[in-house]
Amino acid sequence: MKDLITVIAKALVDHPDEVKVNVDEDEREVTFKLSVHPDDVGKVIGKQGRIAKALRTVVTSAAVRESKRVSVEIVS
User: Fold this and answer.
1) Stretch (H or E) spanning 4
2) Pairing of strands 20-25, 29-35
3) What are the pLDDT digits (tens) for 41-60?
4) Could you tell me the domains of the chain?
5) Where does the pLDDT of residue 14 fall: very low under 50, low under 70, confident under 90, or very high at 90 and above?
6) Is residue 76 over pLDDT 80?
7) Which H helix or E strand runs over 10?
8) How is this protein organized at the quaternary level (predicted)?
9) For the chain, is the Cβ count within 10 Å smaller at the N or the C terminus?
10) What span, in angstroms and rounded, lies between the C-alpha atoms of 50 and 66?
11) Residues 6+ away with beta carbon under 8 Å from 67
12) CB of 72 within 8 A of CB of 56?
């Protein structure tokens, strides 16, 4: 899952070497914190949050196999 987020984010940004994904996991939820270069935050979020919403949808769909709730946060 972490690799999926990393690949998608690197394709969107101008500074792919600064893309980092941290994972916070507890019993019921897994939170992926996506960190990108400050200039690329807008590219990851997209107009009216459409790209961020699509990224969250893809991750949620890929997480159906697990019985945990998955969320993606974009951190600058």
Assistant:
1) helix 2-12
2) antiparallel
3) 999 999 999 999 999 999 99
4) 1-74 (3.30.300.20)
5) very high
6) no
7) helix 2-12
8) Forms a complex with KhpB.
9) C
10) 25
11) none
12) yes
Average pLDDT taken over every residue of the chain: 92
* Residue 1 pLDDT > 80: yes
What are the residues whose beta carbons fall under 8 Å from the beta carbon of 4, sequence distance 6 or more?
58, 59, 62
HSE-CB of 39 using CA atoms within 13 angstroms = 5
Residue with tokens 């500074």: 15
pLDDT at 28: 86
Tell me the Ramachandran region of residue 75: left when phi exceeds 0, alpha when psi lies from -120 to 50, beta otherwise: beta
Secondary structure (3-state) at 19:
coil
Say whether pLDDT at 15 is over 90. yes
Q: CA 12 to CA 23: how far, in whole Å? A: 20
Q: Classify residue 28 by its DSSP letter.
A: S
**CB count, 10 Å around CB of 28?**
8
